[in-house]
């Protein structure tokens, strides 16, 4: 809860108490003057400096009612007015409690301090791949356009404007609200959240070149659910390019104010492996295009010279959440990519191909790993069935076959240079910034019981440790598993469970 929100709620609660208890006296009247003055002042300062948000609409109403009740109660000769004032106070109490709870449960959150030694800068880049037609664009022949947000170590003199957590303000939030079938006002409060990076800051140039990481959001989400993760990595000495995969995310806002909304055929995506492979290939090509684009920026080509000579494109890693992890794995077949991470994702486009022979980590939830084991232990002769696998017997059989082929491919990866960790207490969206949005999310199953701060530190430390080892040549963090007892290295267990796939 922000400062003046707290003052507003506290002053109005004081008015409620004063209106309900005690006999009229000079002391009480003076105290009510103070409480009423605080209420008016806090409301004015809050609306002017902090800005309104829908979670506090009930408290705004309560403030108006309580001030009217206070005015009525000042007439000592009117019993009716005093009764009115007490009635209003009683009715205002639940409004204040509702607002206080909403402000805490849907907070204007603040991100913690950066974990690395560097300040962080960020720039948003609009890039067009002239070599590709966009398969989801409404007009045939339209070239693939991307918005890429880049985070990087910034010069110590970096000051000035911090990038909003949600750039493009209400336009971006309106598109998000439309995608989630919510009134726009319910997301407006996110305008007030600040990131930890400085817009357009100069790159810190004390090293020969920073490794490049290409970060990919999940199916139907957005790069803006990975801001904390990207900033954390940049503060540790990486250039992080996070892609909004056009038409596969909540919404992409282009510099000319065009908005590209989500356009993947959800039914086909759920039912057709071939369609998922097609979308996965498109996203993998986005990654490879982004890599080529960052190579150009590092070479000093193009209008943006901030990145000239500071990106080491011989040390490139990819990572992604969910379907973004699948696309990251698919793109990792490119020799320029040295290592990668799939965060609670799957595979696409793997059939007929060899497993990667380079460092690649499967970082997932315990529930995902338990599903792997169920598939591996499935005995067709027992008649046991897996939940959620296909709506017809034919589709069920096809999905089980695909799942076993996928696990066989992952086994081959683990036999080479693969790594596999699971995080107990995490669920699918713990690998994003979603836990910051509300402590209610664990109730929905989107996130696990792990607290937002710990969840973010765990994921960010695991990711940094992996890329520090494989891109920077640094030794492993020996105490990582001791620091986070929720983490378990399950590679040996997976290899044992998957013996039957040989």
User: What is the architecture of the largest domain at the second tier of CATH?
Assistant: 3-Layer(aba) Sandwich
Assign the structural class, choosing from mainly alpha, mainly beta, alpha/beta, alpha+beta, or little secondary structure.
alpha/beta
Q: How many helix segments? A: 15
The helix/strand order is HHHHEEEHEEHEEEHHEHEEHHEHHHEH
Helical amount = 40-55%
Rg on CA atoms, Å: 27 Å
Strand content: 15-25%
CATH superfamily of the largest domain: Alpha/Beta hydrolase fold, catalytic domain
InterPro entries: AB_hydrolase_fold
Protein name: Alpha/beta hydrolase family protein
GO molecular function: hydrolase activity
Pfam families: PAF-AH_p_II
Which tags fit this structure?
alpha/beta, 502 residues, single chain, 15 helices
């Amino acid at each position: 809860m922000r400062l003046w929100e707290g003052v507003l709620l506290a002053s109005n609660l004081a008015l409620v108490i004063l209106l309900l208890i005690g006999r009229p006296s000079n002391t009480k009247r003076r105290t009510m003057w103070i409480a009423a003055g605080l209420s008016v002042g806090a409301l004015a300062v809050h609306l002017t400096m902090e800005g309104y948000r829908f979670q506090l609409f009930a408290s705004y109403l309560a403030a108006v009612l309580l001030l009217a009740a206070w005015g009525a109660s000042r007439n000592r000769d009117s019993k009716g007015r005093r009764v009115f004032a007490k009635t209003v106070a009683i009715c205002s109490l639940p409004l204040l409690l509702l607002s206080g709870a909403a402000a805490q449960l849907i907070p204007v959150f603040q991100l913690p301090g950066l974990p690395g030694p560097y300040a962080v800068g960020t720039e948003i880049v609009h890039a067009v791949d002239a070599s590709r037609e966009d398969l989801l664009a409404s007009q045939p022949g339209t070239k693939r356009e991307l918005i890429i947000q880049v985070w990087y170590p910034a010069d110590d003199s970096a000051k000035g404007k911090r990038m909003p957590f949600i750039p493009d303000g209400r336009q971006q939030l309106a598109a998000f609200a439309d995608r989630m079938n919510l009134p726009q006002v319910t997301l407006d409060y996110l305008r007030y959240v600040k990131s930890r990076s400085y817009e357009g800051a100069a790159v810190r140039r004390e090293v020969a070149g920073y490794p490049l990481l290409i970060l990919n959001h999940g199916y139907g989400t957005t790069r803006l659910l990975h801001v904390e993760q990207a900033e954390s990595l940049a503060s540790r000495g990486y250039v992080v390019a996070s892609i909004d995969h056009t038409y596969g995310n909540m919404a992409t806002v282009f510099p000319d104010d065009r908005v590209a909304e989500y356009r993947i055929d959800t039914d086909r995506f759920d039912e057709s492996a071939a369609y998922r492979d097609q979308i996965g290939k498109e996203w993998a090509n986005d990654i490879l295009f982004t890599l080529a684009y960052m190579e150009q920026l590092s070479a000093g080509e193009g209008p943006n010279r901030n990145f000239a000579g500071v990106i080491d494109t011989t040390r490139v890693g990819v990572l992604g959440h969910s379907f973004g992890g699948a696309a990251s794995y698919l793109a990792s077949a490119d020799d320029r990519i040295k290592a990668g991470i799939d965060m609670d994702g799957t595979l696409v486009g793997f059939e007929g191909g060899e497993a990667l022979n380079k460092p690649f980590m499967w970082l997932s939830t315990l529930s995902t790993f338990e599903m792997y084991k169920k598939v591996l232990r499935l005995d067709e002769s027992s008649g046991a069935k897996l939940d959620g696998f296909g709506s017809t017997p034919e589709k069920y059989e096809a999905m089980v076959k695909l799942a076993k082929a996928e696990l066989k491919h992952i086994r081959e990866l683990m036999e080479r240079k693969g790594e596999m960790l699971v995080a107990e207490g995490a669920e699918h969206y713990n690998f994003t910034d979603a836990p910051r949005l509300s402590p209610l999310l664990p109730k929905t199953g989107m996130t696990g019981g792990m607290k937002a701060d710990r969840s973010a530190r765990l994921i960010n430390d695991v990711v940094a440790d992996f890329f520090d080892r494989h891109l920077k040549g640094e030794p492993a963090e020996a105490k990582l598993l001791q620091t986070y007892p929720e983490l378990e290295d399950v590679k040996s267990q997976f290899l044992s469970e998957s013996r039957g796939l040989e």
